[in-house]
Every structure is written in C-alpha cells, then in structure tokens.
User: Fold this.
Amino acid sequence: MSNYHIKNLEEYFKVYRKSVHKPEEFWEEIAEEHFVWRQRWDNVMSFDFEKPEIKWFENAKLNITENCIDRHLRTRGDKTAILFEPNDPNEEAQHITYKRLAERVNQMANVLKDNGVQKGDRVCIYLPMIPELAFAVLACARIGAIHSVVFAGFSSSALATRINDSDCKIVLTSDGSYRGSKSIDLKGIVDEALKTCPSVKSVLVAKRINSDIHMEEGRDKWLQPLLDAASKDCEPEIMDAEDPLFILYTSGSTGKPKGMVHTTAGYMVYTAYTFKNVFQYRESDIYWCTADIGWITGHSYIIYGPLANGATTVMFEGVPSYPDFGRFWEIVEKHKVTQFYTAPTAIRALAKEDLAYVEKYDLSSLKVLGSVGEPINEEAWHWYDDNVGKKKSPIVDTWWQTETGGILISPIPYVTPTIPTFATLPLPGIQPALMDENGEEIKGNLVEGRLCIKFPWPSIARTIWGNHERYRDTYFSAYKGKYFTGDGARRDAVGYYRITGRVDDVIIVSGHNLGTAPIEDAINEHNAVAESAIVGFPHDIKGNALYGFITLKETGESRNHDNLRKEINQLITEQIGPIAKLDKIQFTVGLPKTRSGKIMRRILRKIACNEAESLGDISTLLNPEVVQQILEERIA
Ligand code: WTA
Assistant:
C-alpha cells in the first residue's frame, strides 16, 4: 500500500495510526517510493529532545534540486514549473518550463560558483517576487550553499542584522521592486545595510525596474548578463541528509531574530508529502500560493513542496489591490487556478471591498482554498467559502510555523469534514499535546491548553543558527521532552484543534510575526523615550494591530506629541520595516510593574483591547495608581 496519497477519512485514520505506531516504517516507505537518492539512509531517524538533537534519514545522500527539477525532465520537461505573473497585468505572464528552470538554475549555480560561493557558504537573497528569486534559492541548493532569504520589505538595519548573524558572503538583490503602483529602491536599502556588513564581498543585482542606481566598483555586478553567459550544466553537489538547506529568520521574544536552520532530506520529504495531501494535488492542476518567498510559506509551498511533486506553481509579483481589488480573482480566471492558498488578512481586506470584484470573474476552476498565518475568524471563513469557493471548495485552514518547516495541523480536502476556524486534525506523523500550567498533559476532549508536539517529524528545524542553546531554551525547555509551539489551542469533542493564538510575546500583524522586544528596542532608541511596552489589539483587517505605551524622559515631555509619534514610527520603519509601525501610541506617566520591576503587559493588553472591566487584582503592583491614569487616557 502506498501511504503517500490519502483519499478518504478511513484511510486517513489508518495512515495516521501507522504514523504514530510505526513512524520509521511510515516515513521510510514514503521516502523510498517518491524521491531520488544518491545513497540510502542507514537509519530512518533518531532524536533526543533533551539535547536537543534530531536526525532524519541518517547518512543518506541526495540533492534536493534533483528531486525538484532533474527527475521531472524526462516526463515533464515541457510542463510549466513556475508560472510568473508580473505586478502589471499588461506585462505578459512567463511560463517557465521544467527544462527552462533546469537551465536557469544551473546558470545561476555557475554564477554563484564563479563569484566564490562554495558548499556551506551562506547566501543572502533579498529579491522581490521575480523568477530570479526562485532560481537563486534553487541554485544555492544545487551547489550546497545555504540560502538565507530576507523578505524584501525589511529595512536596511533588519537586513544587516540578518546578514551579519549568519556571515553571508554574497547578497543577491535587484535594482528595485514593484508593489502595485509604487516602486521600491531595494538596491539603496542593500547599500545602506552593507555599510555594516564586513562579510559581504559581492552583490549580484538583477535588473527589474530599470532605475538608475549606484553600482559599487569591485563589489556589485549586474546579474542577468552573467546568467546568460553561464553554462547551462551544473552537476548537483551531493549533500548529506542533515546538511543545512537554508536559514530563515523569525521573530522571537528577545530582540535578535532567530535564524531557523532547516536541513535537506527530512524537509524535502515532509514538504512534498504535505503538499500532495493538503492540496490534493493532481498532475494537471495549477496551484497558487500568494505568499512571498521571503516567508516559510513561500519556501515550502511555492518552491520546494510543489516542485518536488512536479507541479505548476504560480509566482505573483504584485499585491491584491492593484490595479484594483479584483486582481487575485482575475489571475485565478486567467490561469485557471485549481488550488488557491492565502492569508486571513488578505481575505479580510478583500471582503471589505465590493463583491462585484469577485463576481466579475470565473472562479469555477478552483477546487481547494487554503488559509495560513493566523487564526481565521468565522466571518472571513464564510466570506471565503461563499464568494470564492462558492461553497464547493473545501477550505484548508493550515496551522504551522517557520520552525515546523511544513503544515502540521490541517484538514485534508474532500477527506476531513471542515468546521469554520478549526485547523481540524493533525497530519500523519504529528502528535500534538495540550499542556496545562503545571506542565502536565491535558488528556481527553473539550479542553484547552498550550500546544506542544510530542514526537519529531521530518521537517522540524534542527537548531537556531549559531545559538543551539537558544533553540533548546525556546522550544524544548518549557515542557520536558516536548516541542513547545508558543501557541494556545483548544480540542473539541471530536478531537479537532482550534488554534487560539500566541501565548508569548509575539504578535501577528497582517500575518507577519512581530516580536515585541525588537520593536520596543527600536522605540527606546529615541532620545525622548524612557520606556515602552507594545501589545496587540484586534484589528478588522490586520487581525492584530500594535498599541504602544510609552513613557517619556523629562526632556521629552515638552515635545509635540504628534511629532514624537511620527518620529517613533519612522524609527521603527528604519529598524524593522513599515509592517511593525504602531497604530496607536499613548504617552503615559508610567507603566504598570510588578514589585520585581517587570512590566505587566497583561494589564496593558486588557486596556488596549478595551477589556478594562476584567483587569483583575492590581493591588499587588508596584504602582497601581498609574493604571487608572492610563485607562483615562486610553486611545479608542
Ligand atoms: C500562527 C507561518 C492559527 C501561529 C506558516 C503560529 C496560525 C505562527 C495558523 C507561525 C493557522 C499560522 N491558524 N494560527 N492556520 N497558521 N498561525 O512562523 O501563531 O510565520 O505559531 O509561519 O502563525 O508563523 P510563521
């Protein structure tokens, strides 16, 4: 029996049981039947959540690009691998076949080698959603270099932090990027960042917007002429199963971003397997995930998962609102998209607009709708189901994280009955546990707790780049012998999971994870600021927005508050990026603190969310009197 493709609920339960009782056998069969290996593994897996150390397919040899590209050439050479849809609807879409993809990736790999990149080197990719981004990612994998894609909406200082953390020796970027009617000077951001990045020796610049930019003599080169001149052949580097494939940064509860390290074989097997099942992918489908490749969703479900299955994956450069709010639906109609995967924040934004934008287009090609990034609220779920799926396309509410590499809890469409706002059941291989405050597992149904995973799956991140201790402390110390997700969840009467949201200091704004600490650090750099605390509050479109409580130094108190607000948001934009700007800034006389001096964010959160009636006992605070004052001056 093949375990690879689940087709009904009975089969799901059977496969799931097997994946729990005989995980090694389960994953071994999948790995054997569906991938090409240069050398077989000695051992399917071993793990120790104390150290922690996790290994899958030990000593196997492979190259992931042979699995994502080469092996399809014989049967799918002329099939579209990447369907590039540009920002401007009047610019023609590009159908990049598997054959062409192989050539471009090999050329890019040769260019990287010519510029001194070797196996194990870190390559920073700071590119917009253009084909060169996909080529660059795969070219790194081809030669065994470790890619670190940084979302091209991050600021120069966020970029520099990421480049320096992993000592990248080269940066791939473009002159600029298009976002709707705007263009962004990416190269300028890179130039600024590189003032503080001594490890970077060269910069390869793709031409996209034809802007007049500065090219640093001896460091910067135009990419496309080098690509065109490079050989179309490049032997894949033979990698060990546990060699790092990439680093991807995610926010944490301290200032420094965490460089999550994903390795090769397990990541490949798990993303391919989950892509096939969660999207019920079939050979002639046209699959579209609207995420940016700068996030894990783009890595796993635009590039690696789809290509490992020989799929056609749409890559969209633009935004949902340009030239108008019908853009997504126009693309669905134009390319006859069968699976559409997006984020609740996009759904909410589009649901606010005239329904005519949706109704204008023929969406009958759609078979599966996906959601990812944050809990999807009931209203958005129904709007998506009614108007996009016309009640005939199941919605897969997929729960996972940068750290998990692939989707862990999700319905399987046409298999798992869906309920709005529930991510439903764990995928095969995933063993969730809900934990109580005392660190005990909560058994049974109709319960709520902190979500952990009890057993490793192939694509779990193996470490944090350069800081294994932080990896252990963040994920494996809260609950002994378990991976802690940072999320809370509820389990209903039939065992379905509903994710309730973060239980740590990470706030998800428009699907972007933002740690409060780095934002507070940025604010505190303002010379008028004494102290600050950031909390989230519900927002119609963004899901959450940021509310900052800020106390000023004596010297700052006479300053104009509106100007200060602008300057503070400007600082945040420079240090992190515009996505982290505060919607509300309240200047306060003090921040509520415990007697040991810790800021009581719980109280501030209640105030920001207008839930002051449930503040609880504040008499034990160091300074209970400030609470009343903050309440009175709350920004509605
Ligand atoms: C949240 C994105 C509810 C969650 C793939 C998680 C979700 C964090 C869902 C990871 C979902 C993601 N329902 N919450 N379907 N999907 N989340 O690392 O809090 O960008 O821990 O990975 O997003 O965000 P990340």
About this structure: Residues 202 and 218 are 8 Å apart (CA to CA).
